[in-house]
Amino acid sequence: MPVVDVDPDELRRFTGHGEKGDDELLDDLFELGLEFEGETEDGLFQLEFEADRLDRLSVEGVARSLRYQYGDDSGVYVPSTNDADWTIEVDESVPDERPYVTGAVIRGLDLDAAGLDSLIQLQEKLHATMGRGRAKGAIGIHDLTMLKGRSRVEGGENSISYRGIDPDGESFVPLDSNDELTPAEVLTDHPIGETYAPLLDGYERYPAIYDDLGLFSFPPVINGRRTEVNTGSRELFVELTGTDQWTIDRMCTIICYALDARGATIERVSVEYPDRTLDRPDFETDEKTVTHRRIERALGIDVDEREVIDLLERAGLDAESDGEADALSYRVSIPPYRTDVLHPVDVIDDIGRAYGFNRLEPEYPDVSTVGGRHERSRHERAIRETLVGLGFEDLLNFHLIGESVNFDRMGLSPADDALGAAEPATIAEPYSRDYETVRTWALPSLLMVLENNTHRRYPQELAEVGLAAHVDSDENTNVAEERRVAGVLARTDASYEDVKGRLASLARAFDVELATPATDHPSFIEGRVASVVLDGEHAGVVGELHPETLVEHGLEVPVVGFELRADALR
Amino acid sequence: MKLPDAQRAVLEAASANEARSIDRLTAEADLPDPTVVGATFTLEEEGLVTLTERVETDATLTEEGREYADTELPELALHEAVVAAGGETDLGSAIDEAGLNGPQVDIALSNFSRKGYGTIDSGQISAAPDANPTDDPERLALAALADGEPIDDESVLDGLAGRNLVAREETTVREVTLTDDGVTALMEGIETTDTVGALTPEMLTTGEWRDADFAAYNVEADAERAQAGRLHPLRRTAERVTDVLVGMGFEEMDGPHADAEFWINDCLFMPQDHPARTHWDQFTLADPDAIDDLPDELVAGVEHAHREGVGPDGDGYHSPWSADVARRLSLRGHTTSLSARHLAGVATGELEPPQRLFSVEKVYRNDTLDATHLLEFFQIEGLVMAEDLSVRDLMGTFTEFYAQFGITDLEFKPTYNPYTEPSFELFGEHPTTGELVEIGNSGLFRPEMLDPLGVDCDVMAWGLALERLLMLTHGFEDIRDVHGTLVDLDFLRNAEVVY
To answer: Main EC class of this protein (chain B) (predicted)?
Structure first.
C-alpha cells in the first residue's frame, strides 16, 4: 500500500482545525483508514493508504476527507473553471503506443516550499499508482509563463502540440542537466532517462510536446529545464500523456482538486485530436442508483430516507431519492476525483463507513448447512495418524525446492527411470535458487531435515504426507499434482528390514497387499532397494539410502526410507 | 522384627557407639549406595537409627602443590643454594643454582624474605644463620598431604590454600548411629522378608506372586524420556481449525496448487495491470506456462466485467485485458482460487445456496523470507453463500470462529480489496500480550466477481494465514522454526500439544 508524507501543520491549516493536536489528528486519520507508519526527519506523518482512494494521495485530499468526517463539509464539491485560453493540438505523428493527452491551466497559485513538495509528491504517487509507473499515465507540470503559445490561425488561442518525433530529431536541455540532449541521448546519458528508458522500448517515434520555442517536455520521461516549476511559479501548465484517456483525465482531476484547495483557479484547456475536441479537465460527476432495500440488506440496519441522504452527504456524495417504500432508491452523484466507485456496492460501503461499521452488532447468520471434510483430507489425516502411531515424527516441508536438491544431491537425474525423476514445474522468477521448482518427490525434503539436525538425538524417524508435482501435458494445467507418503529411519542400526516392517504395517492398516520386488534407484544402494507394489500396482520405492547420498547430506548414520503415492493406500 | 534385606544389612552395619558414614555402611553392607540411602531413611522414620549430617573439609594438593611436595618449595631451594654458596652470593647466580625460572623466581624471593630465611639487598642475597628449613611447617604439611595424612593446623592450610598449593572442598557426610530401639531390635533378632524384583510370567502362572513381597522402587527417580511420533504443531493447528469449521457447518474444498491466473486473479476482479498483481509477486511458472483450456463462456463473462462492469450503471476498469494473461500459470497466491472454482461450478458442480465452504491449504507468495513471512504458508479460506447476507452476518461468523481460539473483542477495520465490498481487516487482542493484531481479511464478494461466475445470491468470505493463528495461540516468534526443512527436531519433539 502507498505511503504518503503529510505535514500535520498543513493538515491543520487545510481542515481549519488549528486546535487539533498531533495525537488527535492521528486518531481521526485512523478512523479514515489511514494508518500512521512513523514520522519523517522533518516531522511529517508517514501515512499508509489503501490503494482505492487515490484522491487522498496528498495533504489537500486527506484534509478534504477529514472535513467531511468532521461534518465541516457535506455533499459533492466541484471547483469552478474558467474558459480555455490554451489548446493542446494532437499531431498525426503522435506514437500509436501513447496516443492520449490531457491537461489544465492553473492560475493565481501561491506555492511555498511545503506546497511545492506536496505537489511533487502527489505527482510521484499518482505515477506509482494509477499511472502504473508512468506507463499508463505520466504528468508534466510546467511554469506557464515560460511557455510561448503559437496560434495556428491569426488571432487564435495559445497552443502547444503533442507530437511523435524521431528519437534524435530534436534536442533540449532536460531537468537536472546543463547539456542539450536529444530524447535518445536522454535515455542513455541522463539518470532519469535511464530509469524510464524501458517504457519506450519498441517506439519508432518518441512522444514530445512543443510550444512555439520548441520541445519542452519529453513524456513519460522528463521535462525540459526551461519550464521548471519553483516556489515563485504563479501559473502552471499541467499536461498528461498516456495509454488511456480516462486514466489521465482522472489523474489530472486529482491534481486540479489539490491545487484548487490551495486557492488556485483552474482554467480549462482544449484538447484537439484530429477527429475530436475535448474540453478538459473533466469535472463531470458520475451517477449510481442504489435501492434503499439493498442498503439495509447489505449493512443489516434499519435507516430512514433522511438518514441515508445525510450519510451520503457526509461521505462527500450527493443523493436524490426516488420512489417510496419498497421501491425507494437513490440517485447518487459521485465527484470526479473518486476513481474507486464502480458499482452501487461501493456507495453502500461509503454509507457504512459514514455510519460507522463498528456500531454494527455481529449476528450469526441464520443459515443451516452441513459441514464435512474432503475425502482427500480425511485420507491424508488417516495416513498421518498411522505414521505417527508407527513412531514417525510428522513433518511439514516446503513444496518449493532447489533443482539441485531435488535431483543432483539425491544422485538422480530428471531423465532417469526412477521415482522422483520427472520434469519439474519451474518458477519464472524465483526468490532464490533454494526455491526454484516444485519438488517432484518428498524424500529430498526429509533428507534436508536430517541434514539440518545431525546435532539432535538419534534415532530420527521422520515422515511426511505432502505434495509433489511434475510437468504433465495430459493435465489441463499441464502440472500433475500428487500426494506422496515418505518416511526415513536414521540410526546406527537402521536396516532394510526395519523400514520394510513399518511399510508392511502401513499397508496392513489400509488393507492393501504389499510386495517388494527388487529394483534399481540411483539414490539407494544397489541390491537393497525394492519397488513398493500395493495391490499389484507400482506405487513407490523402499530401500537403504546410498552412502553417496548420505555423505552429500553430511550424515554419519545409515538411513533407510520409502516413498509412495498416497493414492495407492486407498 | 521383619525387615527387608537391605534394611537389615544397614542396621547390622551401624553401631550405637560410633557414628558411621553412609560410605562405610555401603561398604560393609555390600549394597549399592542408593539402596543404602533409601534403607537408612526408612530406618530413621521407624526410629531405629538416627541420621546426622556433618560438613567435612577436605584438603588436597593442587598440581603445583604436588610438584613442590615431590621436589622442594622454591624458597627452600633458594635458601639451599645460598647456603651452598657460602651463605652469601649475588642474586642471579643463586637463582640459577637453585634451578628457579619463570613465576617460581618471584615466589621464591617473596617467601624467602617473608619466612626469614635471609635478606636480599642491592642484588646480594644472604642466608639467615638461624633458619631451619628442615622444619618448615609448609614443607611438612605438603609432605603429609602427599602421604594422605590429615593436617590439623588450620593456619598452615590457610597459607597453603592462599598460595594455591592446596585445594579445599567441603563435603556433607551423613552419619548413622543406632538408637536404643535399634539396638533392641538387633538383640531380639531380625528376620529378612523375601522381596521380589521383577514380576515374571512364571510367577503369574504358578501363583507364586501371591506370597511375594515386591521390592519398593525409587519411584521418584528420573527415567529416560520415551521418543514418540507426533503430529507437526502446524498440522495440529490446521486440524483444529478444520474441526472448528466443520463444526460450524463448513465443507472442505480442494483444488490445484498450480493454476491459471484466471482462477487466481481474473475471477477475483483483479485488473490485469493492478499493482497488487505485481506487488503480490506471485510465483509465475516458466515451465509449463499456461493452462490448456478455460471455459469460454466464463472467460467472456469475466472479461466483460473487467471492461464494462456489472449492472446498469456499473463501470469496468480502464485496463488492458487479455485471455493470454488469464491462461498464464502461477502457483496460487491465495486459496480464493478454490472459492472461484467452486462458485463457478467447475469444482463440484453448480452450487445452490446456502453453502459454507472452507479450505486450510498452502499458498505461495514471492515475498521476502523473514521471521513472519514465508514463501509458502497455509491460508484458511472460508465463504458463506446465502440469499441475503449482511455485514453483520460476516461479523457474527468471525466472532464465533475466533472465539474458539480465545480471540475475542474483534475489531473490524474497513479496508480495500479488489474483490470484496465492503471489506474489513480483522483485528483481535493477542491472548497473552494484549496487543491488537491483524488476524484476517474479509468482505462480501463484489457483483463483478459473482455475476460472471453465475452466482446471483450473496457470498461473504475471509482469509487468514494459519501460521499467524499459530503464532498467536502459541506465542512463536520466528515462523521459520516451525515450517519447512530448517525445522529443529528438538522443537518438534518438545512443542506443547494444544487441543
So the answer is: ligase
- The pLDDT assigned to A156 comes to 64
**Site from A57, A100, A342, A431 to mutate, B interface, most B CB atoms within 10 angstroms:** A342
Q: Do B483 and A396 lie within an 8 Å CB cutoff?
A: yes
What grid cell was written down for B125? Answer: 642475597
Same domain, B250 and B318: yes
Report ipTM (2 d.p.).
Answer: 0.93
Q: In which residue are the cell numbers 534403607 written?
A: B39
B483 shares a domain with B453: yes
Tell me, yes or no, whether B369 lies in a domain: yes
How far apart CA A195 and CA A175 sit, in angstroms, is 14
Amino acid B467: pLDDT: 86
Please state, in angstroms and as integers, the Cα–Cα distance from residue B318 to each residue in A221, A271, A307, B271, following that order. Answer: 22, 20, 34, 9
Q: Is residue B175 part of a domain?
A: yes
Residues B312 and B416 in one domain: yes
Distance from CA of B439 to the nearest CA of A (A): 16
The size of the A-B interface in CB pairs under 8 A is 281
Choice between B216 and B147, residue whose per-residue pLDDT is larger: B147
Q: What pLDDT was estimated at residue B280? A: 52
Least confident segment among A109-118, A380-389, B17-26, B276-285 = B276-285
B403 lies in some domain = yes
Portion of chain B with pLDDT greater than 90, in percent: 40
**What's the half-sphere exposure (Cβ side, CA atoms, 13 Å) at A264?**
25
The residue of chain B with its CA nearest to that of A300 is B390
Give residue B177's domain range. Answer: 2-61+171-214
pLDDT at A155: 62
Query: Residues near A8 by Cβ (< 8 Å), separated by ≥ 6?
Result: A22, A25, A43, A44, A45
Work out the angle between the directed axes of helices B391-403 and A292-299 (0-180°, nearest 10): 10
- For each successive 10 residues of chain A (570 residues), what is the average pLDDT? 89 94 92 89 90 91 95 95 94 96 96 92 95 96 91 72 94 94 95 95 96 94 95 95 97 97 95 95 96 96 96 96 92 96 97 93 94 97 97 96 97 96 93 91 98 95 98 96 98 95 97 97 97 97 97 97 97
- Number of domains chain B contains: 2
**Phi and psi, residue A306, nearest 5°:** -60, -40
Residues 259-288 of B with CB under 8 A from A: 259-260, 273, 275-276, 283-288
Nearest to B229 among A136, A387, A471 (CB): A387
Per-residue pLDDT at B77: 86
Residue A336, preceding peptide bond in cis (omega within 30° of 0) = no
Q: Which residues of A line the annotated binding site?
A: 340, 346, 349-350
Identify all chain B residues contacting A431, using CB atoms and an 8 Å cutoff: 366-369, 375
Instruction: Characterise A80 by phi-psi region: left (phi > 0), alpha (psi -120 to 50), beta (else).
Output: beta
Interface test with B, best of A369, A439, A445, A453 (most B CBs within 10 A): A369
Distance between B34 CA and the closest CA of chain A, angstroms = 29
Distance from CA of A319 to the nearest CA of B (A): 15
Within this chain, do residues B190 and B330 fall inside the same structural domain, yes or no? no
Q: What is the pLDDT of residue B279?
A: 42
Q: Which positions in chain B touch A299 (Cβ < 8 Å)?
A: 390-392
Q: Please report the domains of chain A, with CATH numbers, ordered by start residue.
A: 3-70 (3.30.56.10), 81-280 (3.50.40.10), 286-357 (3.30.56.10), 375-569 (3.30.930.10)
